[in-house]
Every structure is written in structure tokens, then in C-alpha cells.
UniProtKB/TrEMBL annotation:
Name of the protein: J domain-containing protein
Acidic residues biased stretches: 87-97
One BP annotation, GO: DNA replication
TPR repeat feature ranges: 342-375
InterPro entries attached to this UniProt entry: DnaJ_domain (IPR001623), J_dom_sf (IPR036869), TPR-like_helical_dom_sf (IPR011990), TPR_rpt (IPR019734)
Keyword hit for Transmembrane: yes
Keywords noted in UniProt: DNA replication, Membrane, Stress response, TPR repeat, Transmembrane, Transmembrane helix
Location of region: Disordered: 76-97
Top-rank lineage group of the source organism: Bacteria
Species of the source: Paenibacillus elgii
SMART domains, alphabetized: TPR
Spans traversing the lipid bilayer: 623-641
Residues annotated as domain J: 2-61
Length: 651
């Protein structure tokens, strides 16, 4: 029959094999991309399913059992209409490949008066079965029961599959504690990995928990075991699994207080879970609780004697407490099962070195270098071991020790400078290339942010921040005339000074905006602005050149009393209103006998307040964040530089 060619399988009466072939072909003939191919595939699938079911029913009947008037359920499990049977009735009577067919059974409704389930009811019933499986912990972790559910026709119905997939994802985003085998079955049925491949960011944003448990390889808690929890009795499994997850996340973020709380809550519910005991051992090691780490290590070894974690934690405690033979025994047990375990090799080498067995210590670190030739710590430790060996041989002066010493010297021989530099640079870049890229990128972002918000480069900004205020001494008229444009603060000594009876007044206009006016003392009194006076205009001379000063009351009184003053102030440009008032003063002073020239400079000295540096724009918060991250990267790079410098200079 051509239907087997379309499905791509040999003729079979196995319904499961037909469904698997159909699912595989659906990836090629999608209804939206290839409607013609999909139609042919669907027809082939329908015919194959009906043929398989008919054969199974015929096989199950005794030979003598009459075949007529047999009740038959016309509802197809794939969701197709009941009329499909009548459509192919004639084909069932005669088949070119199989010869004459049996007389078709008379078709009756299985339940009179009951309509077929609509798609919504089928999807609802499927989700009820999902909730039922998840709600009972033994069935939740049983892949066989999930496989049976996922093999139902409603899952294979292309018209229902997308809607069921969305409902199932929404449910699993809140109920995600499933073994890895079950996640694989779910992904195989609904092809979620295709959604991840198409738009990972969107899937991760909408279903972060599903992604973590089904697809994230680094999410260690998703790989923890469930089977041993069957022996936990009638506990709240969901709460327990949440505590287990929270403890792992807390340790990932080094939040020891939160980790301890979650571990205690989990232990109150069930105290024989190897994964939680392993987390407790890790917590004890990080928090410095040696007794707790040792107890958890022994418990882990008791529960899982074939796993290495318990032995590794216990060897660290033995080594920390100076029990080196016990530590070596545990480490050898690990290396017997995992000869390439880097941590066990390093710890064993360190133990042998402390025990004085330099040959075995050397063997351990050489095995590390055979696995990773760029391990700097192994290189440095081997150099130390060789140096200790040379020292020991020199003390013993045994026969043949000279040859050994010469061989060790060759191993420790001076490498040419350029080669050492090359090797050191290679080690440094290979370990910290990502940090170096981040440092360069952060420098660029910080510099651009500084220029955008302050108009200055970072160096210029910080230089201006730490630079003290430069107050220039002006001792002559030429110094005054040669002041640089940006000179702000000056110190000057004026002679023949006089009070000009002109006031600087601050007033507010109708809109509330503050403006500065310059009025004679009489005019200020007439307008009732004595309380608004902020400065008093005075004039003094420096090498015969007149200089205008706006001072406070104390400075004006000193000028009035002694006719001289030494002061500091800020150089400012003279406003037009002040120039106008000076002209008025010139006219008023014609009877005062003043024969000195008026100020010719366009600048004056504001001495009402002490000179201060120009206020710099404030920096946005993100610049401080960038600087903090940059500092962390620099710390990491400097630590690596320290290691590389040891490697560079050890020989």
C-alpha cells in the first residue's frame, strides 16, 4: 500500500509505531508550509491506524465468534470525524495487497445520544490528567505513566497540539519539579526545543522555570534526584523541593544565611536526601563549620558509597585538621574511580608534599599537567617540589645524587627571557581574556558617559575635583592686565581706596525671578531696599590703575576707615547696569574733589563671598555602577598577574 511509503515504515499493526512515524513526518510536512503533503500524510495515517485497530480487534476475537452486528466505537482517537469510516468502507471491502476483506461490521454509537467531545473538552480532560499525575508524587516521577499519557490520541492531533502545548507550558511554569526523564518525554512530544532554537530570549522570558529545568545544562538543581523521596512518607513534597531549590540558589549567590534557613526547613521534612546532604556539606565548608561538614560527609558516604562528593568533602576536612593519611586514603578512593579528577589530584599532591613524599606529590601534579598543560599552580608546585628535592639530595650526598640534581636543574633551567615573557603572556591572556575585554569596554562606556554628562574626560574631571583652588596674587597693574581668561580667584592689596556709596541689591520681579540692581545709597533708601543690599561698591588703586570691588559691609567699613585693604575675591565681568551707575557716580562726585581716573577695566572683583572652585556637574548613578564593576575586574586581573609573575620568576 502507498500509505506505508508515505509514512516511511514497513507495514505494521503496532499503533505506537504508526504514531511515531507520523510525528516524524509532521516535521517535514507541516500543514502551514506543505498543505498538500500534510493532507496525504494525514490520510495515510488515518488508513494505517484504522487498519491496525481492525487487525487487533480481529486477532482478539475467537474464530467461531460471529462478526455481524458487533458494536463499534466510531469515535476516532485522533479527533477525526466519524464519517471517515464510511468514507473508506469500500476500500475496506477489497484491498489490492491484502486480498478480499471481511464484511464490515455494522456501526452503532457506543453511547446513544452522547455527542463527541469537542476539542476544548479533550484539552481540558488532558490537563486534568496532567494535574492528577503531578499531584501524586509517585506518579509524578514515573516516566512510564507520563509516556502513557503522552501517547494518547489528543497529543497526536495536530489541531489540538499547539493549544495543549501552551496550556501545559503555563502549568509547568508553576509546577516544574519533574525528573529529567519526564522533561525529555514532554519535549519529545511537543518539540519545545524547536521553540527555544527559534527564539530563546522570548521563551526564556515567558517560561524561565521550564527553560531552566528542561534545557539549561548548568542548572544543577534540575538534575537532582527524586526517586529516594518516595521513602519520605506523607510530606509536602512540593514545599520540600522548593526548600532544596532555594538552598542551592542561595549557595550559588553565596548567601549563607538564606542557605542555612532553607537547609534546616528541608531537613525538618526529610533528612535522607543525598542532594540536600551534599548542599549541607558545601554550606559547612564555606561557613567554616568543620564538624558539620564532616558529619554530612560521613552521612553522604553512608547513603551513596559509590559517589565521590562525600569523600572529597571529608578529605578537605582531614587535610585542614592535619590528618593527612586519612585525607590521602579518601582521595585515593576518588582517584581509583575517577583518575582524571583535578581537585582530587591537586589535594593528593598537596598532602603528599606535606607528608614529605615528594615523588608521589610530583606524580600527582604531573598528572594534572598531562590533563591541562596550562595549569599554573601545578607548574609552580612542581618547581617547588624540584627545589625541595635538590635541597634534600645535597644534604644526603648519596651516590648518584649528582646526576639527579643535574636533571632537576635542567627541569628548573632558566628559560630565555623572551620565551618566559611569551609563556607568561599566553597564560595571562588565556585565563583572563574575558576580563580584559570587559575592562576595555567599561573604559569606553565610562569615558563616553563622562563626556556626555560633564563635558570633560574622566581624567580632566577627576583632576579638577582633586586640584586645590588656585588663588593668584596680583601685585601690580601689569599682573591685573595679564590675568588669564579663566583666572577666577585673586588676592590683591589696594591703596587709596574709597567707598562709592553704590549698593548691590537683589530684588525679585513679578515672576519671582531674582535680579541684581546697582543703586545709589539714597535711591536704595528711597525704594526701601536696605534689607536687600548684598554688596557695597568700592574703588581702590593698584600702581595707579583703578580697580572696582564689590565687598561686604565689613570690607566697606575697613575701606572707609583706613582707605586701604587686602582681600581675596572672584574676578567677574562688569555688567552694563553697573557701568551706568558708575557714570552717574562720576557726575555726583564732581564736587567731591576726586581727581583719580575711573576704572578702565571691564572686570571687577567680587569679594562678598570667599572664592571657590567651579561646581562640577554631578555624575549619574550608572557611572558609579560601571566604576564598581570595573574595580572588580581589575581585582581579578591583578590576582592573575600575581600568579603569572610567580610563574615568570620562579626559575
Amino acid at each position: 500500500m502507498r500509505m506505508w511509503e508515505i509514512l516511511g515504515i514497513d507495514p505494521t499493526h503496532e499503533v505506537s509505531a504508526i504514531k511515531k512515524a507520523y510525528a516524524a513526518k509532521l516535521k517535514i510536512h507541516h500543514p502551514e508550509d506543505d498543505p498538500t503533503g500534510y493532507q496525504q500524510l494525514r490520510e495515510a495515517y488515518d488508513q494505517a491506524i484504522k487498519l491496525a485497530k481492525r487487525q487487533q480487534k480481529q486477532t482478539s476475537l475467537p474464530d467461531e465468534e460471529p462478526e455481524v452486528f458487533e458494536t463499534f466505537d466510531v469515535r476516532e482517537e485522533d479527533g477525526s470525524e466519524a464519517g471517515d469510516i464510511a468514507e473508506h468502507e469500500e476500500d475496506e471491502l477489497y484491498d489490492e495487497d491484502d486480498g478480499p476483506q471481511r464484511i464490515p461490521r455494522m456501526v452503532f454509537w457506543q453511547e446513544q445520544g452522547k455527542e463527541r467531545d469537542d476539542p476544548e473538552s479533550q484539552a481540558k480532560h488532558f490537563m486534568e490528567r496532567v494535574e492528577e499525575l503531578y499531584g501524586k508524587f509517585p506518579s509524578r516521577i514515573d516516566p512510564n505513566q507520563w509516556a502513557e499519557l503522552l501517547n494518547s490520541d489528543v497529543v497526536w492531533n495536530i489541531n489540538l497540539q499547539n493549544g495543549i502545548s501552551d496550556r501545559l507550558l503555563d502549568f509547568l511554569e508553576e509546577h516544574y519539579f519533574l525528573p529529567k526523564e519526564v522533561w525529555k518525554l514532554l519535549d519529545s512530544a511537543f518539540h519545545w526545543n524547536g521553540l527555544v532554537a527559534e527564539d530563546k530570549e522570548s521563551f526564556l522570558e515567558q517560561y524561565p522555570q521550564v527553560y531552566s529545568y528542561a534545557f539549561a545544562e548548568s542548572y544543577e538543581v534540575a538534575n537532582m534526584g527524586y526517586s529516594l523521596l518516595r521513602g519520605a512518607g506523607e510530606i509536602d513534597h512540593e514545599a520540600y523541593l522548593h526548600y532544596r531549590e532555594d538552598a542551592w540558589l542561595a549557595l550559588m549567590h553565596n548567601d549563607l544565611a538564606a542557605a542555612n534557613y532553607s537547609l534546616q526547613k528541608a531537613r525538618e521534612l526529610f533528612d535522607a536526601d543525598p542532594d540536600v546532604i551534599r548542599l549541607e556539606a558545601e554550606y559547612g565548608w564555606r561557613s567554616g563549620e568543620s564538624e558539620r561538614t564532616l558529619a554530612m560527609s560521613n552521612r553522604l558516604i553512608q547513603l551513596c558509597p559509590d559517589q565521590m562528593d562525600g569523600y572529597l568533602y571529608r578529605s578537605r576536612i582531614w587535610m585542614q585538621d592535619g590528618k593527612l593519611p586519612e585525607a590521602v586514603q579518601d582521595l585515593q578512593h576518588i582517584l581509583a574511580q575517577f583518575p582524571g579528577h583535578m581537585s582530587a589530584l591537586s589535594l593528593a599532591g598537596t598532602c603528599y608534599k606535606k607528608l614529605g613524599d615528594l615523588e608521589k606529590a610530583k606524580e600527582m601534579f604531573q598528572r594534572i599537567l598531562a590533563l591541562d598543560a596550562n595549569d599554573i599552580e601545578a607548574v609552580l608546585t612542581l618547581a617547588e617540589i624540584n627545589a625541595l628535592t635538590i635541597k634534600e639530595l645535597r644534604v644526603r650526598r648519596e651516590k648518584g645524587s649528582g646526576r639527579v640534581v643535574r636533571r632537576l636543574y635542567r627541569e628548573l633551567g632558566k628559560v630565555p627571557l623572551h620565551k618566559r615573557l611569551k609563556n607568561a603572556a599566553y597564560f595571562f591572556v588565556s585565563h583572563k581574556w574575558f576580563s580584559l575585554i570587559c575592562i576595555v569596554a567599561l573604559h569606553f562606556w565610562i569615558a563616553s558617559s563622562f563626556v556626555k554628562h560633564t563635558g570633560e574626560t574622566p581624567l580632566a574631571y577627576w583632576s579638577e575635583t582633586v586640584r586645590p583652588l588656585n588663588v593668584m596674587n596680583v601685585s601690580s597693574a601689569s599682573d591685573w592686565e595679564l590675568l588669564p581668561p579663566k583666572a577666577a580667584a585673586v588676592r590683591v592689596k589696594l591703596a587709596d581706596a574709597s567707598y562709592m556709596a553704590i549698593q548691590e541689591v537683589k530684588v525679585k520681579d513679578n515672576s519671582g525671578k531674582e535680579t541684581t540692581k546697582y543703586l545709589s545709597l539714597d535711591e536704595a533708601k528711597k525704594q526701601g531696599l536696605q534689607a536687600n543690599i548684598t554688596g557695597h561698591i568700592c574703588m581702590g588703586y593698584l600702581d595707579g590703575e583703578a580697580i572696582l570691588v564689590v565687598g561686604n559691609y565689613k570690607q566697606a567699613k575697613e575701606i572707609y576707615d583706613s582707605r586701604r585693604i587686602e582681600l581675596e575675591g572672584t574676578v567677574r565681568s562688569m555688567p552694563d547696569e553697573l557701568k551706568t551707575e558708575i557714570e552717574k557716580w562720576k557726575n555726583r562726585s564732581s564736587k567731591s574733589g576726586i581727581s583719580k581716573p575711573l576704572p578702565l577695566s571691564d572686570n571687577y572683583i567680587d569679594a562678598t563671598t570667599k572664592p571657590s572652585k567651579k561646581a562640577l556637574p554631578s555624575l549619574p548613578l550608572r557611572i558609579y555602577f560601571y566604576l564598581f564593576i570595573l574595580g572588580l575586574f581589575y581585582i581579578s586581573v591583578l590576582r592573575e598577574l600575581r600568579r603569572v609573575s610567580r610563574f615568570f620568576g620562579y626559575n
